[in-house]
Specification:
heterodimer; A: Arc Repressor Mutant, subunit A; three-stranded antiparallel sheet; two-stranded antiparallel ribbon; B: about 120 residues; 3 strands
Chain lengths: ~130, ~120
Amino acid sequence: MHLVSLTPEPAALTPRSFLRPCLLLLLREEPAHGYDLLERLGPFGWTFSASDPGRLYRTLRRLEEEGLVHSYWEPSSEGPSRRVYHITRAGMEELQGSANALIETRRRIQVLLSRYQEFVSLSGGLERSRAR
Amino acid sequence: MSADDRAPWPLPRNFLRPCVLLLLREESAHGYDLLQRLRPLGFVRDDPGGLYRALRALEQDGLVRSSWDESGSGPDRRVYRVTRAGLEELHRSARSLANVREALDAFLDRTGEARRTHR
């Protein structure tokens, strides 16, 4: 599954490394398989096409190397065993730090959007119709 | 701007582009003016190199056009203005950033940080 953002220009305007705190948040809520994570990322603007889970698993592997996530194999009565991911204490701290930083990211985006909306409403209908 | 790469918060990779397009839509400007006018948008550390690289890329993409200001003086006499294509890019970026803001709200809401953002 290939991760793309819902926006027309995928990575370009998504905050750098936004996938990491999203994964940490989901794992703080509940340990999960990679596949569950793919589905649960939707509300954060990530969506998937069917065949390339690469980026998700690379990110999980890096989080695990950094000690932010821990995984083990869970045996399954049906089918092969699957890897289950947990968040570690260090991961929770990292998540908190990211959340604090992303408040500022959101503020910066809000400042730009407010200025933009101001100019769109000032420049009136012509500009708006041209935008569509 | 590269100064912003060192910021502790992660900005969208191309965040400078819509900022420059918006400022030029508000008023055509010399690079030096833009540097000043970027500050209220949060680019508090001047980085002329980063700005001129961005302007050059925007011009190559046809989103910005520059001309020589004959009446001006001093070394910085190139005036930048946004093109029709640049304006369309600005509108697209604004829609993208509105989606990003929504994603950030969903994220901050679930981390319990929503109360600290100003809606």
